[in-house]
Amino acid sequence: MLELRGITKTFGGVKAVQDVDMSVAPGEVRGLIGPNGAGKSTLVNLISGLLTHSAGAMTLDGVPLDDLSSQQRALKGIARTFQNLRVFSSLTAQQNIDVAGYTGTASARGGDDLLQEAIVRFDLADKLNDPANSLAYGQLRRLEIVRALALRPRVLMLDEPAAGMNEQETEALGAALGWVRDKSECSILVIDHDLKFIMALSERITVLNMGKVIAEGTPQAVSENRQVIDAYLGEDQEHAA
């Protein structure tokens, strides 16, 4: 569904992303991992349209995305969360969701029943009338995800959704995202440094290092890849795997 071919992003003389090829199937959960500075967030910014790629091409359901703005991509079905929380703090949780819902409704993709159940699955049903600035950190993380789901996305991109969560919150988040995977054809692209979380959630994992794809495959195959171990996982993770 989401196809990247030769995606490259150059900042001055630095290639932050280099010749990335990636295909994400409908309903697939794809992990995106790598060391700090590997280009993961830059790649998500390129897909969502916050940055313009220097070379290459990308399509969604065969439709070129290259010349579309971030707003136009949202209408096409590209939704995302951010590494640093970006919610409307003066609005209620419900109003935050409604803001995205206007775009989701305009897309004509439907999904109201899924959204209402998502509010319950992400444990926000009793927080809808609370101002966002009164919510706990983990609740804000979940609110950002539900707000992205209100866009009725074809692709949902999550930039470190489990960051700052405790083990119990992370397990609950994984279960909720698994429900999204099972109940929709929405593809999920997840960046996270919590390897237990991302290995359990993902069907396939793409590994970036210095802007390049160095491995791609099942969690098991990636965890046993020597280049990935040397660049990111380390020997301790190899033995744990």
Give a short synopsis of this structure:
With 241 residues, the protein is an alpha/beta fold. It has nine helices and ten strands. Helices cover 40% and strands 24% of the residues.
Describe the protein in words:
The two termini are 31 Å apart. The chain has helices at 40-48, 70-76, 93-106, 112-121, 137-149, 167-183, 195-201, 219-223, 226-240, and strands spanning 2-11, 14-24, 29-33, 55-60, 63-64, 78-80, 155-159, 187-191, 204-209, 212-217. The relative contact order is 0.18. It has a single domain (2-240), classed as P-loop containing nucleotide triphosphate hydrolases (Rossmann fold, 3-Layer(aba) Sandwich). The protein is globular. The longest helix has 17 residues, at 167-183. Helix content is 40%, strand content 24%. It is built from nine helices and ten strands. A hairpin with a 2-residue loop joins strand 1 and strand 2. Mean pLDDT is 90; it is low at 235-241. Helix 3 packs parallel to helix 5 (137-149). It has 241 residues and is α/β, with parallel strands linked by helices. It has a six-stranded mixed beta sheet, sandwiched between helices.
